[in-house]
Design goal:
With 461 residues, the chain is an alpha/beta fold. The protein contains 16 helices and 15 strands. The protein has an eight-stranded parallel beta barrel with strand order 1-2-3-4-7-9-12-13, surrounded by four helices. The chain has a three-stranded mixed β-sheet with strand order 8-10-11.
Amino acid sequence: MNSRPNSYQFSENFWWGAATASYQIEGAVNEGGRKPSVWDTFSATPGRVLNGDTGAIACDHYHRYPQDVQLMAQLGIKHYRFSISWSRIMPDGVGQVNQQGVDFYKRLVDNLLSYGITPHATLFHWDSPQALEELYGSWQSRQMSFDYADYVMAVVSRLGDRITNWMTINEIPCFTHMGYALNQEPPHAPGKRVSLAKQVWQASHHALLAHGLGVQAIRAASTVPCSVALVDNFAVTVPINESPVHVAAAKQAFPSCGQNGGIVFPALTGAYSPVLLEQLAADAPDIQEGDLQVIHQPLDVFGFNVYSGTYVRAADNQLGYEFLSFPPGYPRLHMPWLNILPDSLYWGIRHLSETVGRPDLPVLISENGCAAQDRVNAQGEVIDTDRIMYLREHLRAAHRAVSEGYPLKGYFLWSLMDNFEWACGYERRFGLIYIDYPTQRRIPKASFDWYKECIKSNRVV
């Protein structure tokens, strides 16, 4: 082992992984007893998704998972994060469990285990059953939290002998605050235009409640010791420079950035941030007695999804800080929001420990990656040096967090393969593996070989 101080070496027990999500890769939307999810309906609605793309076929992972698992083994990952489709397990959202859906995930997990790859299952990654949208409007209804917990119980009681790493819900802000939009059409996610900000916050409160009830359901249903996580893409405030005054400003700004004060704070501390509640006033959600105790469940690990961040500096104003917008020439990758800010990974972990006050809680980077303008060259290769640059800098930030003693235990790269990128369809590619959609051919990119070398030498190369 190279122990030079600048060799970016990780400990032997650091987890190297990759991540995907069910609707983005599986396809087979009408097979094996599955019924539509809200994303089937949304993507089939003209004008909602770029180029009219849908997840109907996606990467055809439902049929091609043995090949995909083989590629994971070739990459060298020992940890794989995927999500389970609620519509495959409970096609109507409630009631009857679909055995064919359960069997698909059993086959997938058994295949992973045969290669020594540990499965990490996300129980909800946005694709809720369309039946519940029609029944009561999905996350607008408190009932969704209880139906989600029943679904979790059904999954864990059937797969808990094989899966011991569970993640309840992925990125609450995206399917609530981007799905239920105020005074604008929600462009990003199934949902609808609502008339009050309170309705949006109520939806995210219901999702938090679902998380808490889901944790209880996992622990009740699992017959073996298991690890339970929440996954969030909280907004990261990064000091413009690390002088004490700007560091203090970044910490002060954290509860007011994005939806932090109303999602990561209640989940990890048992209370909405008082700063946020004061800002929301009458728009704060209705919180029933006992809700915060349910939401604030003990967790074994926290999954942090990170792609970019927001610069903050100290300011001579009422708040004591100001958020800084990116200048026009600031470097970014192939998404309008994908400004390259590797320090956001380090600062996100540090904020969890210091600003949220949870230094006891281990952290996983559950997603980190970028869309790049990938092209297959004349030799049939994809040379994505832009992605390698992005990933290398973020892994160096991860190494900094570890070397300073923050409890980072692993890194899951988004994504294993190109896939259905939600409202951007197949136009934006995040994968280590290029998918030629007409033929479903898999082409490992230059970044695949780079990441393979990181894993093999257990350091940033």
